Amino acid sequence: MSLTLYHGEPNGPSFTVLAALFAKEVPAQLTYIDLAHGERHDLPWAADAQVAMSVEGEGPVLVAGGEAMTDSVFLACYLDDVGQGIALRPADAYGRWETMTWCRQMIERTAPAAAFLGCRAYPPQADAARLARMASTDLRARWELIARGEFPEAHVMDSRAKIAQAAERIEARLEGRSWLMGSLSIADLESYAWLAGMVALVPEAFAGRLRLEQWLERVRTHPAVARALALTRSGDPRASWSVGPEINRWG
Amino acid sequence: MHDITLYHWEPNANSGKPMLALMEKGVPFNSHYLDLLNFDQHKSDYLAINPQGTIPAMVHGKRVLTESTAIMEYVDESFPGPKLMPENPRDRWRVRWWMKLMDQWLAPSFSMIGWNVFVGPAVRKRDPAELEAAVQRIPLPERRTAWRKAISGRFSDEEMSESQRRVALGIRMLEDELGRREWLASPQYSLADVDGFNLAYALPLSQPKLSNDELTPNILRWLRAIYARPATKACWAMGRTDMVKRVKILEQPHIAGGGA
User: Fold this and answer.
1) CA distance B29 to A107
2) Is ipTM over 0.90?
3) pTM given for the model
4) What residues of chain A lie within 8 A of the CB of B104, using their CB?
């Protein structure tokens, strides 16, 4: 089955999927789209529920057998299922539970915070025609808040705290191990995806965390990751952000 | 005594997901009921098992597992019985996609409405000092905020109308998807259906103007088909509150539009 991946800069969700694709040696046509300008909304599948309503926000789209698929962790699971390369999840059910639980924490707590801070530092911009085409009202609302420069201080503080919590968690997890789950896994990719760009924006979260620093370098130089990062067009993917998952509505 | 102990509240939302998955698989487990409305999940004996104080939690041998959707995948992989994740990788992706949409986008809106009309009023009858002490024991700051909002009824009109908008849209999305296939996310009954039933079993009662046999025939067909499964019947029979007895609405052969 032929696969086409529409991806943005190798940061955030596009990073996870590109690195997984290369680690799994899955042949696919790669098509670059500018997620930071909302180009995903020009795709023929933009109005499909599974693209328009992706909880992840502006992530990559993998088209397989005519079906447009989204959400980076689950795309990585799909690639892990169909690819031939190294396994990206542990072989045992408990290790797989740990991986999915780890990723859920990243998706739900870290990703919204990182996307919020990333978009505050490097605001994405979509023109009025693309905004009008967005099928998801709440996604469009997040774009509009960014366009108006509305970044409430309470969310800034909370997001910085969430990045610090993720950094602390990774530092603790890496005691006595090189990778979060034994060998390079979807958990490493998803964690790197959201945190690599936070080193410059929330430096205090990373200060003095030697294991975290070494792990970031270990992930960055993994051959599959290096291939993904080499696809950057901007020169520094860590400075490229688009609208991410929403911050928990419950406060 | 079984090898598995499940700490859960009612067969509803997150607690009901691993309960129903275990029962579908025919896996016996020790049921440890925690009364959410009595804050049992924040008491020291349970915090010794799950320091985050969230429910459900499952103990398998010496291991403690949390996060209801991840627990369901673990249960499906670890035990014999009917497979609840499809074999086809794209179907597996679709199952996970729908579970995430329901868990992270739709369920919070359902629960904001549910807490406003059910949980908040139920606990508000208690002594305020006792309630505050219970909230202080909640380990996760997000849950403390949520409980304070529920207890005080401090959801704004804007929050409630946004939740209602999402519920209405989510119902349309479910109806459309269930118009494409018998089950929600794959050709076979899957964890997405288990997840979805826990979210939507009382839909024709809670949202009668949005979900009934005239407006959402596919949702009603789907809910009745899941309710007809022996595991579902046995699971919902474990419920203790009136909230879960709402499932009996699905015994009605026809639910007309405009209210039940």
Assistant:
1) 30
2) yes
3) 0.96
4) 55, 107-108, 245
